[in-house]
Design a protein that fits this description.
Blueprint (H helix, E strand, L loop, with lengths): L16 E4 L5 H12 L9 H6 L4 E5 L5 E11 L2 E9 L8 H15 L4 E6 L2 H5 L4 E3 L24 E6 L22
Parallel strand pairs: 4-5
Antiparallel strand pairs: 1-2, 2-3, 3-4, 5-7, 6-7
Length: 187
């Protein structure tokens, strides 16, 4: 990495790029998630789960092709999505990678027409810095708790529920140009 521990450079200045995940990234995503799952900081993900949900994920890739961060947006209901499995390799923490992924997820949710994005987290200060507010877990729909029963900490989980309400998309409506057909004249 180009910076020292005391001076972290933004991810784009260290040659890393944010992109949507592809199938070839699945094993790296799983390894990164399960590293933190071993520390009880998030749920384990099987390789099958990663493949099934690969379109949910964003990754940050270094110039050398290493996946150093991941996270996904999972649509839960017609108005609601979750940011999940947000993980950044330790040497790259503090460079804005997690923030870039989380904000990409928020932007995607807005593009999809969703009204609310939530996260279940042990790091509420991170999500608060990007506009999320703490809410009572009971305010989230029961469907949200599907995965919680797999957690070794269930039902005594200490994760904090946070939501970010999204502003309605404001697209500038440009009227279509008149169509002029170039048809051959038939005499």
């Amino acid at each position: 990495m180009a910076s020292t521990d005391t001076e972290k450079l933004p991810y784009y200045e260290i040659g890393a790029r944010l992109r949507k995940a592809c199938v070839a990234d699945a094993r790296a995503i799983q390894a990164l998630i399960n590293l933190y799952a071993e520390r009880d900081e998030m749920l384990h993900r099987s390789l099958g789960e990663i493949y099934e949900n690969i379109r949910d994920f964003y990754v940050v890739e270094t110039g050398e092709g290493e996946i150093v961060a991941c996270g996904g947006l999972h649509v839960v209901w017609s108005h609601l999505a979750e940011i999940k499995s947000l993980a950044v390799k330790e040497p790259y923490q503090g460079c804005g990678l997690g923030k870039a992924i989380a904000l990409a997820c928020v932007e995607e949710a807005q593009d999809l027409g969703l009204k609310t994005v939530f996260a279940l987290t042990y790091k509420p200060e991170f999500f608060a810095r990007i506009g999320f507010k703490v809410v009572d877990k009971a305010t989230l729909p029961h469907k949200v708790w599907n995965e919680c029963v797999r957690c070794p900490k269930f039902p005594g989980c200490g994760e904090i529920a946070m939501v970010r309400e999204l502003a309605p998309a404001t697209e500038e409506v440009i009227p279509p140009a008149p169509v002029r057909l170039a048809l051959p004249l038939i005499e």
